[in-house]
């Protein structure tokens, strides 16, 4: 019997190729008409711009193995994500940096002075932040929090920031320099031909059949083992309920020339219904597009419904309880392993997805060679 991989994103593609390279016969299925998952890129028919169809994706990592792996299958150009933000009628640089601080407060402080200034704004009574809001107030104080995080977070998550875990904000840096690189990883880039081309190259290996537009639920073939990167709750028919996700709606519009002068513009005020606008010509500066039609997308966040594409796991109290039940069911189910963002119900950057899939391949080798049963999960989900 051959092996089945469900889902054609990075997780599924890497595992499917690995199995095929080891001489296993593999069927990879994806219910979309294209591989690549939410990283899917394609040429916009109207403007000719390479579009990140499900929102912008910048590959950034500190894992040399992951970086070397993706570059085997496509040329990656260096790319620095420089995000701008509209707040209270003015434009600032994000993440919060020395430039943002001086712009916002109308000052000309240096690094040491700004550090002392922000320390004076921070709420020192909060020694152990219990939620997102307390984390922000303890780091930057109420003024910057209200300007850049409160409204945006409410739009993005649909709840009060005080109901979100503090860990979400720990991913957002505050810099006392003029460094406007949104990420800090040593390797950052975007593939020249797009992510879908990279994943198609990963999948180009003998012994691997790709079946697009197919649902796993409709496949009757028996398999030696299934590697499932779809939604964890869906595998079990939503038996214990549906895990909570946020989804995104995209409002496409075109313009002439350069619309906003940057790739990503965040809209922090709650009165603006969208969270950001992405102008996709700026994600491929090597194409040197300076004229012609441009294409942009406004992003709107809302609770994911039954027929929506799930993006961000909510992981509030109810979801954690339900997740525990599904994890127990998964561990008790033989013949299937769960991977990736949806299969493990976690928010994962692309590089982490790649790193975990490569580590899973290592464990697959060890397990199959020893004749043992493959685990339900290849990473510790209790952390």
UniProtKB/TrEMBL annotation:
Start and end of every UDP-galactopyranose mutase C-terminal domain? 147-347
Query: Which Gene3D superfamilies did the record assign?
Result: NAD(P)-binding Rossmann-like Domain
Q: Which residues form a coiled coil?
A: none
Q: Name one Pfam family in it.
A: GLF
Designated name of the protein: FAD-dependent oxidoreductase
> Origin organism of this chain?
Acetobacter musti
């Amino acid at each position: 019997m051959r092996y089945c991989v469900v889902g054609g994103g990075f997780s599924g593609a890497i595992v499917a190729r690995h199995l095929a390279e080891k001489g296993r016969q593999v069927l990879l299925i994806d219910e979309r008409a294209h591989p690549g998952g939410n990283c899917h890129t394609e040429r916009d028919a109207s403007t000719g711009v390479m579009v990140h169809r499900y929102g912008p994706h910048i590959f950034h990592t500190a894992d040399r193995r992951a970086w070397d792996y993706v570059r085997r299958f496509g040329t990656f150009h260096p790319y620095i994500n420089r995000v701008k933000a509209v707040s209270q009628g003015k434009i600032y640089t994000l993440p919060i940096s020395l430039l943002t601080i001086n712009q916002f407060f109308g000052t000309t402080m240096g690094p040491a002075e700004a550090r002392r200034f922000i320390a004076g704004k921070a709420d020192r009574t909060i020694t152990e932040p219990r939620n997102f809001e307390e984390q922000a107030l303890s780091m930057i104080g109420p003024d910057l929090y209200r300007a850049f995080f409160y409204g945006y977070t409410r739009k993005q998550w649909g709840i009060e920031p005080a109901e979100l875990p503090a860990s979400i904000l720990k991913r957002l840096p505050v810099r006392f320099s003029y460094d406007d690189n949104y990420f800090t990883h040593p390797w950052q880039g975007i593939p020249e031909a797009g992510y879908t081309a990279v994943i198609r190259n990963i999948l180009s290996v003998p012994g691997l059949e790709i079946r697009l537009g197919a649902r796993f639920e409709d496949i009757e073939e028996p398999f030696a083992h299934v590697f499932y990167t779809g939604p964890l709750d869906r595998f079990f028919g939503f038996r214990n309920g549906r895990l909570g996700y946020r989804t995104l709606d995209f409002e496409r519009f075109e313009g002439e020339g350069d619309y906003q002068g940057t790739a990503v513009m965040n809209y922090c005020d709650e009165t603006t219904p969208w969270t950001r606008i992405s102008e996709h010509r700026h994600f491929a500066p090597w194409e040197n597009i300076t004229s012609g039609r441009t294409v942009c997308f406004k992003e709107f966040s809302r609770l994911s419904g039954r027929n929506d594409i799930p993006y961000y796991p909510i992981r509030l109290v109810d979801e954690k309880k339900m997740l525990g039940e599904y994890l127990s069911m998964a561990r008790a189910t033989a013949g299937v392993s769960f991977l990736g963002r949806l299969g493990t119900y976690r928010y994962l950057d692309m590089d982490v997805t790649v790193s975990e899939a490569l580590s899973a391949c290592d464990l697959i080798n060890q397990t199959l060679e020893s004749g043992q049963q493959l685990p339900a999960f290849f990473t510790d989900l209790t952390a």
